[in-house]
Amino acid sequence: xxxxxxxxxxxxxxxxxxxxxxxxxxxxxxxxxxxxxxxxxxxxxxxxxxxxxxxxxxxxxxxxxxxxxxxxxxxxxxxxxxxxxxxxxxxxxxxxxxxxxxxxxxxxxxxxxxxxxxxxxxxxxxxxxxxxxxxxxxxxxxxxxxxxxxxxxxxxxxxxxxxxxxxxxxxxxxxxxxxxxxxxxxxxxxxxxxxxxxxxxxxxxxxxxxxxxxxxxxxxxxxxxxxxxxxxxxxxxxxxxxxxxxxxxxxxxxxxxxxxxxxxxxxxxxxxxxxxxxxxxxxxxxxxxxxxxxxxxxxxxxxxxxxxxxxxxxxxxxxxxxxxxxxxxxxxxxxxxxxxxxxxxxxxxxxxxxxxxxxxxxxxxxxxxxxxxxxxxxxxxxxxx
Length: 385
Ligand SMILES: [Ca+2]
Ligand SMILES: [Ca+2]
Ligand SMILES: [Ca+2]
Prior knowledge:
alpha/beta; 2 domains; 10 helices; binds calcium ion
């Protein structure tokens, strides 16, 4: 621990001038099933492009929205072995390893038997189960069945939680998701699940898609009502499954916007033309810029449902790291609460009942300790907001 005097912190704060938090991007990879079946080189073009643009676009996270492969566990022609598609998917997605936090979720095509999710997916567990990710500092845990997983990512001064949830989110997955939210209170959260929105207007699926009596899933509408709407930290839900592009803002129980987005290009030529969705978060503009890019043709799709701007008051996502008194800026007033958060979680909770101790986690590792001092001083000096 370096000896920082209060005077030194004050000098830093005076020197600082308010600057906006940096833009960052997340990438949505929808339904890759046709690439895994027939066009593995297009799948590779997507992950290769992501790796090549991690720095330029400040890519903070990549989420695959499910239907990783076409033939689940039964394989092309029903020969009972689909290693080829799963190995292609694994080869493409493995390119992300070591470059960017990422995760994926099962779609209806990814279970060993289509639409029989209770049969499980050995292919998924073997290649993409939790043990693959547990050594990653950004990995956030998984459900007991191994099919739902959590990741953390950092962008624009905030640490985010992502939950990948199995299709139709059955009760045990719902309970696990709620437990993850409860153990990370206030952390801005996005949900990736394969089946959620429908193609028409402002709608989600009003019925279950996985016709499996042993699964007991719920509809998209029920996912919204039971998980999204009552948890104000959930601000974004992304899905695939049906080949449309849709976006709708909905309101949670506090009247705050929840952004809901469907992307899926599987019915385009070449199983999707290599299209993926880029979401550039711009805290200084209070906006998310959505764009759609073909990594195969190296062209943007620019029609209205592929390129658009979403207004989002970033204050709705909670305070940024360093704003330890949660007043919307990082300045002198945050020094004492930072020290308090460091020394006693209980005292901090009493003194700042409407704030979050994670605001002192300035190195974004999920812990509040002495290791955060350098990063706090740097953020104070920069006068971020
Ligand atoms: Ca379009
Ligand atoms: Ca503050
Ligand atoms: Ca920390």
